[in-house]
Amino acid sequence: MNQHQIALVQSSWEKVIPIADIAADVFYEKLFELDGSLRGLFPQDLKDQKKKLMATLGRLVASLEHLSEVLPAVRALGRKHVSYGVKPHHYSTVGAALLSTLEVGLGDAFSSEVRAAWADIYGTLAKAMSEANSSASAMSMQAVRV
Predict the structure, then answer these.
(1) Which CATH class is domain 3-145?
(2) How many CB atoms lie within 10 A of CB 36?
(3) Which end of the chain offers a freer environment for a tag, N or C, measured as fewer CB atoms within 10 Å?
(4) How far apart are CA 59 and CA 46, in angstroms?
């Protein structure tokens, strides 16, 4: 992840902010289309969840220039998601839904360069969450055995 990628992600995110509600709708529709089993991990009413998603993404995008300071919180989020039933392999589905959402929301502004920047940055964040998720899951399983 470099400064140019960060700038691409941040400038494209500015275009998502005005359509945040629509983007959240598109994201969850795509997520459940890609893996219907994920629907059960969420409340029936997604209104608050959609707001949390967009707020979290906004904070992460704003903090990309200081990623090392944000990664502990990202890892904590990955550990927290274990209690919701999230598995490490779910992060790739979320990434696909995110990229699809951005493609729909940004249209022509979602160039191959912007897509690659989002994919790289999401990959970094997802790796941190997934590793923390795996670690927390392993610790949870170990505790069950004791």
Answers:
(1) mainly alpha
(2) 9
(3) C
(4) 20
What pTM value is reported for the model?
0.88
- Assign 3-state DSSP to the chain and report helix, strand, coil percentages, each to 5: 85, 0, 15
Tell me how far apart the alpha carbons of residues 28 and 22 are, in angstroms, rounded to a whole number.
10
Round to the nearest angstrom and report the end-to-end CA distance of the chain: 41
Q: Contact, 72 vs 66, CB < 8 A?
A: no
Burial track 104-129 (b if 16+ CB lie within 10 A, e otherwise): bbbeeebeeebbebbbbbbebbbebb
Instruction: Please count the helices (runs of H) and the strands (runs of E) in the chain.
Output: 6, 0
Rounded to whole angstroms, the Cα distance separating 49 from 38 reads 14
Residues 82-128 pLDDT 10s: 888 888 889 999 999 999 999 999 999 999 999 999 999 999 999 99
